[in-house]
Write a structure and sequence with these properties.
Elements (H helix, E strand, L loop, with lengths): L7 H27 L1 H6 L1 H39 L1 H16 L1
């Protein structure tokens, strides 16, 4: 699975959108539960929860990437293991042609 390369500005835009998504979600849930006045008086609560969620999401993304890297490493190892036999076959064919 090949990762799509994105421009820096596209990555930043996605990151900003994700942060706003987290912020809005946390803000709205806290406002529904404790009231808008509480949330507006305690932005540090929203910030702490957003940071916690974003950190957990980052941990999950890193774990997914590590699994992808392990899978890619296994595929590469399998391909590398077939190289000696391919070289041997090419050598045989070249020797056969020169005879």
């Amino acid at each position: 699975m090949k990762a799509e390369r994105k421009s820096y500005s596209k990555k930043m835009e996605e990151h900003i959108n994700e942060v706003f998504y987290y912020w809005d979600s946390v803000y709205n849930r806290l406002a529904d539960k404790y009231g808008k006045t509480f949330v507006e008086s305690h932005p540090e609560v929203v910030s702490t929860l957003v940071q916690s969620i974003a950190t957990k999401d980052l941990e999950s993304s890193i774990l997914d990437m590590s699994h992808d890297m392990i899978d890619s490493q296994k595929e590469l190892q399998e391909k590398c293991e077939s190289i000696p036999s391919a070289i041997s076959e090419i050598t045989f064919l070249l020797e056969k042609k020169t005879l």
